[in-house]
Structure formats: structure tokens, C-alpha cells
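WARN retry 2 of 3 for item q-0093 after timeout on previous attempt; input resubmitted unchanged.
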Amino acid sequence: MIDARLLDAVGALIATHARPGDAPLIGIAGAQGSGKTTLARAAAERWGAACLSLDDVYLTKAEREAKGRALHPLFAVRGPPGTHDLALLETTIAALRAAGPNSRTPLPAFDKLSDDRRPTAEWPMFANRPSAVLVDGWCLGATAQAEADLAAPINALEREQDGPGVWRRAANTDLAGPYAKTFARFDAILFLKAPSFNAVLDWRCEQEAGLMGLAPSDLPAERRAELAVFIQAFERITRHMLAGGVRADVTFDLARDRTISPPASGRS
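OK item q-0093 returned
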């Protein structure tokens, strides 16, 4: 169950930034499995908003594979800055904000199990005009790191596959450039702050089990091991965000069980 304080906080951001004839754009950020998508969907239903996820505007598998060949193999792996279609995100946001009472706006959709974008014919539609546009994303609002912070690898993935730092520097350049420009267009961002990066693997495994229709305890051990490697691609920026490298208007500290810790700690 979603804490009512989180829903109220999203509602307050919508109300604060509401303008006649223009739906406010509100972001919900948080590490993998933090509950950001669940919150965005619940808040959208509560407040009559449209919601979409940064996860649904990844570049297609073919586009990421091409980028991996041209720049660095790790860009074939979805997740870090440089693997999203920001033009698609901005086009969708613009269409939602321009929607009228009889509009039907297609929302991009990505299939994580097949690791590819769904065909446009399968995209869901948002009917009518939204009160706001809510976007959730794991790196939403993240700021770029200083060059000195990029020098040393922080995990086995970086040591073994990006020793010279080509991939992490390219992702950081994207974060400082096109991503920063996109994030700056948001009226406000709410950040669900994980207690530590160590909680993310458990959260991501729970999320994966749900996608597979399994109880978390039934997730195969080999899949958990694969996810432990997979989340290393997110580790650098997640740790940076947890250390303050995020532009957020409201932050809620989460305990390991995703409850707000300490109670009523949301702050602006």
C-alpha cells in the first residue's frame, strides 16, 4: 500500500505548478524497485494525470546494439544515460500537454523481458486532457559527476568492461548535456531516496519476480546473480544521487522495506 503522504506530496506539486491551459510536468525519481512507478500510477489515477516511465522510452534493441558497436559495447545494455530516446519522451510529453478533452495520446511502451520497445500498435492510449504529466525514472534529475570522480572504476563491471572509462564518461557527457536539458523542463521532481545502494538488488529482484509472475523467494538463483551484474550499470549514478547528486524539489527517505524513514520525513 502506498503511503498517503507520498500521494499527497505529488498532489501538492501538481497544485503548486498548475497553470491555466497547461498541465504541469512532475517527475518521480528513485532507484530501481523503490516504488516510483507504482507511486506515479497511483497518483495519476488519484489526480487525473497521465503517467509514463523513462523505462518506456529506451532506444530499441537494434538502436542500442548499433550504439554499442559504434561507441562502447555497454551502450547495448539498457539503463544508463545514452540509452533513452529523449526525443520520443519530449514528443510524448508535448502531445499530452497539448491534449484536448477528446484527445487520445499514445504512450510508448517497452517490454523488459524481450528487452525491446513494443510495437506502436500495442502502445496504451491516454484519453482526454490530463491534469498533469507524471514521469518516473531511476536517473531523473541526476546531475553529472566531476571529471575526477570518473577516473577510477567503482565495481567489477567498470573494471572489466570499461577500465579506460570510455562508457562512463560518455554517459556522464549525455547526463550533463541532453539529459540535463530535458530534466530542466520539469516543473518539479520528487525523489524516493533508497537507504543505500545495497537495498537495490533486493528491490530489483522483487521487481523481476513480479514480471515473471513469481514470489520473490522463487526467483531462480541464477537470475538473481544476473541481476547483481545488471545493476552494476546503474550503480555509479545511483550512488551519486544518494550522495546528493540530484535536483529534487521534495525528497522522501525510504527504509529498506520502502516505508518512509523516519516517519513524515518528506521535505522540500
